[in-house]
Amino acid sequence: xxxxxxxxxxxxxxxxxxxxxxxxxxxxxxxxxxxxxxxxxxxxxxxxxxxxxxxxxxxxxxxxxxxxxxxxxxxxxxxxxxxxxxxxxxxxxxxxxxxxxxxxxxxxxxxxxxxxxxxxxxxxxxxxxxxxxxxxxxxxxxxxxxxxxxxxxxxxxxxxxxxxxxxxxxxxxxxxx
Length: 177
Fold this sequence. Notes:
Strand order of the largest sheet: 2-1-3-4-5
Helix content: 25-40%
Largest sheet: 5 strands, parallel
């Protein structure tokens, strides 16, 4: 199975979840920030798992990211905006064939999130969802992650692998028409 996990992370929480998901997917899976996805890995990906933090109750825009520089002076660590947003990565992603899964990091009470946008964009490009999107909770605006979230992420990675393996087995078992 060829799987990649692509993420946008501002304070490290989404990166930690992405790496835990990749661990659950297995030894061949890797997590990459948006500007480090190798073209050869993307081309052969059977599964793209994409995730982002939630800002303004949605997938962050470039304007939201720029506002972080001006409005988050009280953050415990500086925001990492050195990688492009997941939104811009999705805008550049070529059409393909495979499956996808979406995740987000969020505060528990957020009324909306990023996963719907991620799923729609990936589906439109030929990567329909293989599983229900997951939401991982941070304790407050900057984190850290709530206890148990990394374990949940690793477990979800294992579930994604089983789903993809089952889909591949179904495709092999189905007679050609």
